[in-house]
Amino acid sequence: MFTAADGQRVRAKLAEQQRAATGLCERLVHLRERLQAQIDRLSLALDQRRQHHQRRAGSPERNERYCPRCLSTVFQPVGRIRAENGFLKIDLRCGSCAKLYTFVRGG
Ligand SMILES: [Zn+2]
After folding, report:
1. Domains of the chain, residue spans
2. CA of 60 to the centre of ligand 1 (A)
3. DSSP assigned state of 63
4. Is this prediction's pTM over 0.90?
5. Rounded to the nearest whole angstrom, what is the distance from the C-alpha of residue 87 to the centroid of ligand 1?
6. Radius of gyration of the chain (CA)
7. Other C-beta atoms within 10 Å of 70: how many?
């Protein structure tokens, strides 16, 4: 037979489960925020490293399609076209002196 004491026990158990579920939700939200913050930091670091590498690699970015070294307008695309921060970036190799440079388009 279901007594008032049984009812109290069931209600207590339900309340406990609800607290546990709420706690889990809060921990998940917190974890997600921490992960997002970490992803943001890592993307920023990656961007900086990429820019640093590009500077060191001597692959200047320009919005004109001719060689920064010999001014030749003959070029060949190398690699893939990338989209970065709303810009299209195309790596080109000069057809005359083989200098690599990046053509940037858009904004
Ligand atoms: Zn050139």
Report:
1. 1-57, 59-107
2. 12
3. S
4. no
5. 23
6. 29
7. 13
